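During the second year of the project, the team shifted from modelling isolated chains to modelling whole assemblies. The rationale, set out in the original proposal, was that interfaces cannot be judged from single-chain predictions alone. As a representative example for this report, we include one of the complexes processed in the last quarter. Its constituent sequences, exactly as entered into the pipeline, are reproduced here:
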Amino acid sequence: MVESLKVGLLGLGTVGTATAESLLSPNPAHALLKEITISKVGVNSLDKPRGVQLSAGVLTTDLEGIVSDPDIDLVVELIGGLEPARSLILKAIANGKHIVTANKAVISRYGEEIYQAAEQAGVYVLIEAAVAGGIPIIRPLQQALSVNRIDSILGIINGTTNYILTKMAAEGTDFAEVLAEAQQLGYAEADPSADVDGYDAADKIAILATLAFGEQVNLEDVSCDGIRQVSAVDIQYAERLGFEIKLLAIAQRDETGLQVRVHPTLLPKNHPLATIDGVNNAILVEGDPIGQVMFYGPGAGGGATGSAVVSDIMNIAAMLKSSQQVNPLIKIPQHPRSQLVPIQKLVTRFYARLICVDRPGVIGNLGTCFGKHDVSLESIVQIDFNNGLAEIVVVTHNVEEEKFRKALEEIPHLKGIDQIQIPSVLRVLREA
Ligand code: NAP
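Output from the structure prediction step:
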């Protein structure tokens, strides 16, 4: 039975500071917080001004010392990045310490190794803050929803891209302009690739899929397209056709198997995720027998993410007070490796925007080509006409991705189709 829990905090940045504030508050939000103390805080630089007042000697640059300090029960990893975060987590586990982390990059790549080490050491690794910041989603999947068979998880789990798409839709501005503005406001990083190319969302959906479907998802198998190809024109056309464009992270199991992917998606305006705007996140979980459950809220920010971190710390404190056994409902188990269905086998609807020389028979030729590849069209409309070029928008019925891509490959070689460009190809989701 542990009377008081001693925490070693790695990182005192945005999330670390909010976490320390909660743990050090003279008016803690929960009585259990009085039994948790911060023993050490590891940072890069001792000279930076800090947002929290720490006792003398608590702040250190010796992170190795924290993970091997015999007085520390729990290590909270909030430095981010892959290394030294991964090695520090593994060393802390080897030294018998419980782990709380917000590091989706490490968990999506090294979760298997980390959970295995934790299993052997008999310690907890809790990761509520690693996906969707302050929104509780990990524990609901593990506990409240655990008696359901999960069919799908659809998430808007990257605030930066949702902010950019929302702004593009509201103001009709193009991607590059809104990105520059988001960077100025601090909503996007100087190097925006992890967000706008979908990698951050891929990390998070890989973690959620592993938990929800009980199979260890390999990050490399997650198909990932970002939002760079989405233009203001596409957003306008989608709007006219009754859709919003969102970057969705999707994990779905059907008779063909499990598929995990991230891509910009046309969502019908009445879909529950279509109204999620700005930096907010939302996750729609569909399971049997529960049906649909939606989680919505702030997916980032120090306070929101710190709230998830502190709740994990409190959970471990509570578990250790009541038992020395690892609670199977709290710990993340090891899962067998997943075999994902490749994106070419995805059956979905598509939106494509094509530009070519405007001449009679173009639409007919396109229709014939799609038909030849078993692509059935819901609509094919000539939307605009500029400098002798026609802009044509195609929306398909459900079709296997491979067949649709083969039709697109053939289009430039069709007779009567000149100067063809296909600036956008987006997937379309049905009503929820
Ligand atoms: P941050 O503001 O950049 O803070 C990082 C902290 O870690 C700083 O205190 C830094 O020290 C320290 N640090 C980094 N590398 C270090 C090293 N090699 N040795 C010693 N100290 C090191 O990061 P953050 O935004 O708080 O993010 C922390 C984690 O939370 C990341 O995994 C991130 O993905 C995750 N997360 C963040 C948010 C969010 O809204 N920010 C939301 C969800 C999840 P110095 O202060 O001395 O530079």
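The chain has a mean pLDDT of 94. The first strand starts at residue 5 and ends at 10.
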